[in-house]
Recover the amino acids of this structure.
């Protein structure tokens, strides 16, 4: 719930979390016994797990457009790190510079939001991965999760 009025395009946060690979995602989903809803996948395949390391972006609820009042936009961060690398042939760690671009999601408002309004964003359209079969209650007219649930009940 937002206690103050917010204008359009106000940056709220970066969706923060641990960067994991596909194998780790699948392992964590098995351990939880259902879909792991705090994992966000970027278009480049980067997975961000906000279960342990997170900010309030991971606490925001889902709603489909046009009900969602915020959006998650991807952008790249360039990361430069000095790491120490040990090999089996060399016991002394060698310093190595690691550079890479990381995709992150910036969550911002997509319209003016009155005070005392719940902040929501569209998690994505893959109903099975997002909700693990749970029902979406966003009430958007074109909710793909609700539509998938209705279609699965048809004979």
């Amino acid at each position: 719930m937002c206690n103050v009025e917010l204008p359009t395009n106000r940056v709220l946060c970066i969706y923060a979390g641990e960067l994991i690979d596909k194998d780790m995602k699948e392992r964590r989903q098995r351990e939880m016994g259902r879909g792991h809803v705090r994992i966000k996948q970027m278009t480049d395949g980067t997975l961000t797990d906000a279960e342990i390391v997170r900010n309030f972006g991971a606490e925001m609820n889902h709603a489909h457009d046009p009900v969602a009042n915020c959006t998650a936009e991807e952008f790249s961060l360039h990361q430069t790190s000095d790491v120490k690398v040990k090999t089996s042939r060399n016991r002394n760690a060698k310093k190595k510079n690691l550079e890479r671009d990381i995709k992150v999601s910036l969550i911002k408002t997509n319209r003016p939001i009155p005070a005392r309004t719940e902040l929501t964003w569209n998690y994505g359209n893959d109903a099975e991965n997002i909700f693990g079969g749970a029902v979406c209650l966003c009430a958007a007219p074109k909710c793909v999760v609700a539509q998938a649930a209705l279609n699965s009940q048809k004979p």
The longest helix spans residues 22-32.
